[in-house]
Amino acid sequence: MRGSLPLSLSAAQIAEIETLAAVLNAEQIADYFGIGRTTFFAMIRRDAEIGERYKKGKARAVGSIAQTLIQKARAGDTASMIFYLKTQGGWRETLQIERHDEWSREALDLKQLSDEDLLRMMGVLQPLIEREGLAGTPGDTIPAEVPT
After folding, report:
1. What is the tens place of the pLDDT at every residue in 30-56?
2. Number of helices (H) and strands (E), helices first, in the chain?
3. In the chain, what are the domain boundaries?
4. Phi first, then psi: what are they for 26, rounded to 5°?
5. DSSP 76
6. Residue 50 exposed, middle or buried by CB count within 10 Å (0-12, 13-18, 19+)
């Protein structure tokens, strides 16, 4: 079937794309239908329904997995909490600290800290941030010396 390039997929095959997209990428779907990958990408560009079915299937799968991730994070799963905050909350593994005494900046590398140490650090900093009104937007710096 690979030698022949179909001009279109049947209605049943187009409907099947949505289900397949939840577990396969575009290249694997092309292989499943026995067509060339460039042909499948051309079909997606040419036929809006094929593209929409593919995107809808991917979105449903991502949404389902994301719901499970959020449930695990809310239940206290540390790895899920950290993953979510890094991917959706803009968290990074380095912390930019502004030193008021010298007006210089230095990065604190947090990569060597365990997840538990990071959570303990967050627990200590959160009340201070709230009390001193230091909360800002992602990327803001936290003063190294905060008045007590």
Report:
1. 999 999 999 999 999 999 999 999 999
2. 6, 3
3. 11-74, 92-143
4. -60, -40
5. T
6. buried
97 touches 105 (CB < 8 A)? yes
For residue range 74-92, list pLDDT tens digits in order: 999 999 999 999 888 888 7
- Count of alpha carbons within 13 Å of 91, Cβ hemisphere only? 15
- Those residues whose C-beta lies under 8 Å from the C-beta of residue 27, and which sit 6 or more positions away, are 37, 40
Query: For residue 43, with 0-12 CB atoms within 10 Å meaning exposed, 13-18 middle and 19 or more buried, which class applies?
Result: buried
Amino acid identity of 69? L
Average pLDDT, the chain: 81
